[in-house]
C-alpha cells in the first residue's frame, strides 16, 4: 500500500511528464483527505500508468491530461481524462479484450494489452472501471476502488 497516496500520484505524474515526448501538460488534481489507503502499490501503478500513458498516446501534442483523485464514501475514485481521439462506441464492449484496438487508432502504435491488464488489476481490488468517451473530444476513465 502506498503510505502516501499524494506522493505516489505526484511522483507517477512527474515520471510520465519526464518521459513524454509530445509535451502534454499532465496535471494531478487531488480532492481527497484520506492519505492512508490499503492497496497493492504495483497493481495501482499498473492501473494508473496504463491509463495515463493511453491518455498521452491518444491525444495531441500540447493538450492536457488530468489525473483526478478523490474519496467518496468507502471508495477511492481515480479519473484519467484526456482531450484526444476518443473511442468509437462500437469498440467499447471489446475495450478490455486482449489485443483489441479501436478502429480509429490509425498509425498510433500499440499491442492492445494495456487495458486487459488494467481490468485484471481493478478486478483483483474488487473495483469497478467505467469509460466515457466522445470521438475527437476526449475520454474519461473512472476507476473506483474500495478503501476497505
Ligand atoms: P498497449 O498494449 O501498448 O497499451 P494499446 O494502447 O493499443 O496498446 P490498450 O491500452 O489495451 O492497447 O487499449 C486498447 C485500445 O483502446 C487502444 O488500442 C485504443 O484503441 C483504445 N484506447 C484506450 N485508451 C484510449 C484513450 N485514452 N483514448 C482513445 N483510445 C483509447
Ligand atoms: Mg495502452
Which descriptors would you attach to this protein?
148 residues; alpha+beta; 3 helices; globular; binds adenosine-5'-triphosphate
What is the CA-atom radius of gyration, in angstroms?
A: 15 Å
Total helix count?
A: 3
Describe the main β-sheet briefly: 5 strands, mixed
Shape: globular
Distance between the termini: 12 Å
Helix percent reads 25-40%
Element pattern in H and E: HEHEEHEE
Strand order of the largest sheet: 1-2-3-5-4
Number of strands: 5
User: Which stretches are poorly predicted, pLDDT < 50 over at least 5 residues?
Assistant: none
Structural class: alpha+beta
- What are the distinct ligands in this entry? adenosine-5'-triphosphate, magnesium ion
- Portion of residues in beta strands equals 25-35%
Integer average pLDDT: 93
Task: Describe the protein.
The protein is an alpha+beta fold and 148 residues long. The protein contains three helices and five strands. It has a five-stranded mixed β-sheet, with helices on one face. Helix 2 runs antiparallel to helix 3. The relative contact order is 0.19. The mean pLDDT is 93. Residues 50, 54, 110, 114 line the site of magnesium ion. It comes from Nostoc flagelliforme FACHB-838. This is histidine kinase. It is found in: Membrane. Residues 1-148 form the Histidine kinase domain.
Condensed summary:
The chain is α+β, with helices and mostly antiparallel strands. About 30% of the residues lie in helices and about 25% in strands.
Could you give the topology of this structure?
Layout: H1 5-19, E1 25-31, H2 41-57, E2 64-72, E3 75-82, H3 114-124, E4 128-134, E5 138-146
Parallel strand pairs: 1-2
Antiparallel strand pairs: 2-3, 3-5, 4-5
The structure holds adenosine-5'-triphosphate and magnesium ion.
Subcellular location: Membrane
Protein name: histidine kinase
Organism: Nostoc flagelliforme FACHB-838
